[in-house]
UniProtKB/TrEMBL annotation:
GO terms for molecular function: rRNA (guanine-N7-)-methyltransferase activity. This is Ribosomal RNA small subunit methyltransferase G. It comes from Candidatus Fimenecus excrementigallinarum. It is found in: Cytoplasm. SUPFAM superfamilies: S-adenosyl-L-methionine-dependent methyltransferases. It is an enzyme of class 2 (transferase). Specifically methylates the N7 position of a guanine in 16S rRNA. Belongs to the methyltransferase superfamily. RNA methyltransferase RsmG family. Keywords: Cytoplasm, Methyltransferase, rRNA processing, S-adenosyl-L-methionine, Transferase.
Amino acid sequence: MLDRPLLESILAAHGAALADDAFARLDRFAERLVETNRQFNLTAVTDPAGVTVKHFADSLVLFGLYDFPAGARVLDVGTGAGFPGLALKLYRPDLQLTFLDGTRKKLDFIAGVLADEGLAGETVHLRAEEAGRQPAFRETFDVVTARAVADMAKLAEFTLPFVRVGGAFLAMKSESAAEEVRRAQRALTLLGGRAARDTVYRLTPDVPRRLIVVRKISQTPTKYPRASAQIAKKPL
Ligand code: SAM
């Protein structure tokens, strides 16, 4: 299903290698994604090159752009069908992944892939703004990721409460998100974060992307995250 030479060349350009066993796990996930997508909607992209670039390369270049510590606790907020979280786990099984989404069906899909691969991973069926208030999740993750979930200011309130002080939030955005990121600076500061890095790069010549690395520099005040309606009505 996946175009291995294409995936390998994109990852190599970002300094990440692709081992045979990791590729085999990722390819089985891709097959299942497209197969399951015939029954319920998981992805709009289903052609091999599109899936390879827009889902798998997009997720896995994170390993070239950020140094995930061995055994790190990683949370993927709004994981959907598992991007980037499940791709990260299949590539680096040492990572302790938690998958959070408001939609149960997508989490069941992820749990099925993990079970078939014999890998552990926690699925959490809650909205981010609910889970972020629970002590079991709050400020307990080394790295939090999110792709295509919300505008940066809202996303910061969804994600930063989960990150431990000293950890990082990785926001995967389109190249055009510069203004959105600039507007979110106040939100990041209020939530205990600081944008440490803002990188624009290309997966292929026509697929530019942006990664914002937000460092958690102080605890998030307990009043955040606020209730969903407030976040939607009055983003920080
Ligand atoms: N991250 C995946 C990707 O890039 O392919 C999925 C993106 S999809 C457009 C957005 C996902 O975020 C959906 O699965 C939705 O259920 C979830 N989501 C949106 N807001 C959320 C929230 N506040 N809490 C939990 N999940 C949320």
